[in-house]
Design a protein that fits this description.
alpha/beta, Spore Coat Polysaccharide Biosynthesis Protein SpsA, Chain A, 8-stranded mixed sheet, 13 helices, 8 strands, about 50% helix
């Protein structure tokens, strides 16, 4: 009973802290925006591997982009005819060119585009993204006021519990906590000099390239900015199978990044704890679950009840703490519709814990290629029952 009471008190404190944090972030987001700034020449690089069916929609959306001086460089390849599809789509854009890429990974493709570019600002855009007309101006603006890089605001092309859960996580990290990490799914803008100062796009980094780039910039003290107005509609994992596959791919990439950039991610005890906490929790829960299962099967009756109760309390504590994410986002966006998905963050957390254990044991299965074929119909959906697609 004492443990249950402590768990309850801690859960209440977490929820209270989440609501207070959301209210503070909401007040700060209402500040007057900065004045307009001069817009430099921009090179938009779109790496596309096995993207036939999505690259055409990306290029069509780019035709509507409102920006005075920019070029488009599509680095395309794959056995499905992505290069040919990109060439056909780019015929309608006077300032676009297509470069064929070999199967050497995303950073190799980006380097091909970088060598062909002429802009003072380099923008990396995923091939499954469809930017809005004002996206580029909003994304580039922070670079003129001191930021070395910025990341945009990805909106899922399909609204499901899994995309809503991921959307909550993005709002929490980027908009509420202002914990900016460059996200390829939201597009990334970089000053060319800042990119060159950190070594560009190293081709020995096969996966997690946005995470790796963000870490290298942060190591040099660079300012990173989140641009909520730089919206792109993008394909995100929308089903259990898609979320599982993407999370497994990302967790492997994350672990490889921890090893590759140990000084940044594991340099101090506090930073190491932040980056390794989830994996430690995953293995702890696995060990606890195995112990509980063995005890329930062969242990004495009294011990069975106590151990099972401890396990239930632990699971409930994790679930209720994580559910506070939906309340936090509902308060920040002034949209109670998020509360209908209180159950989603806990479910996604438990999936991530399972996947983290699997990823830890299968790092050699990390591939060099990025997302690959998509499942979207290419239509931007209208979410009639859930939260709005754009929040500040």
């Amino acid at each position: 009973m004492c443990l249950a009471a402590l768990v309850t008190l801690h859960t209440v404190a977490v929820w209270f802290g989440s609501v207070r944090r959301a209210l503070r972030a909401r007040r700060e987001s209402a500040r007057v925006p900065p004045p307009p700034v001069p817009l430099p020449r921009v090179s938009v690089i779109v790496p596309a591997w096995r993207e036939r069916g999505t690259i055409e929609r990306c290029i069509d959306a780019l035709r509507a982009v409102d920006y005075p001086d920019w070029e488009l460089i599509v680095v395309a390849g794959g056995p499905d005819g992505t290069y040919e599809a990109a060439c056909q789509a780019c015929r309608r854009l006077a300032h676009a060119r297509v470069i064929e890429q070999p199967p050497r990974g995303k950073n190799a493709a980006l380097n091909l585009g970088l060598r062909a570019s002429s802009g003072a600002v380099i923008v990396v855009l995923d091939a499954d993204s469809q930017p809005t007309p004002g996206w580029l101006q909003a994304l580039v603006a922070p670079l003129a006021t001191g930021a070395a890089a910025s990341t945009g605001n990805p909106i899922p092309s399909r609204w499901t519990p899994f995309t809503r859960g991921e959307r909550m996580e993005r709002i929490d990290e980027l908009a509420i906590r202002n914990n900016v990490v460059l996200q390829g799914s939201g597009s990334i803008a970089l000053r060319r000099d800042a990119l060159e100062a950190v070594g560009g796009f190293p081709e020995h980094v096969p996966v997690g390239v946005d995470w790796d780039l963000s870490a290298r910039l942060a190591e040099r003290g660079a300012t990173l900015a989140f641009c909520p107005a730089a919206t792109v509609v993008t394909e995100r994992p929308a089903t259990l199978a898609e979320y599982w596959h993407n999370e497994l791919r990302w967790r492997r990439a994350h672990l490889l990044s921890l090893a590759h950039l140990r000084k940044h991610f594991l340099g101090t005890p506090r930073v190491a704890l932040v980056n390794l906490y989830l994996y430690a929790l995953a293995w702890l829960m696995l060990a606890l679950t195995i112990c509980v299962a063995v005890t329930v099967l062969i242990g004495p009756p009294g011990l069975r009840r106590n151990v099972a109760t401890l396990w239930v309390i632990m699971v409930a504590w994790l679930a209720l703490r994580r559910a506070s994410l939906a309340a936090e986002v509902a308060v920040y966006t002034r949209n109670a519709g998020w509360l209908a998905y209180l159950w989603v963050p806990p479910v996604m957390l438990f999936i991530t814990l399972i996947v983290s254990c699997i990823a830890s044991l299968s790092l050699r299965r990390a591939g060099i290629h990025f997302k690959g074929p998509r499942h979207s119909t290419g239509k931007t959906p209208h979410d009639k029952t859930g939260p709005p697609q754009i929040e500040r």
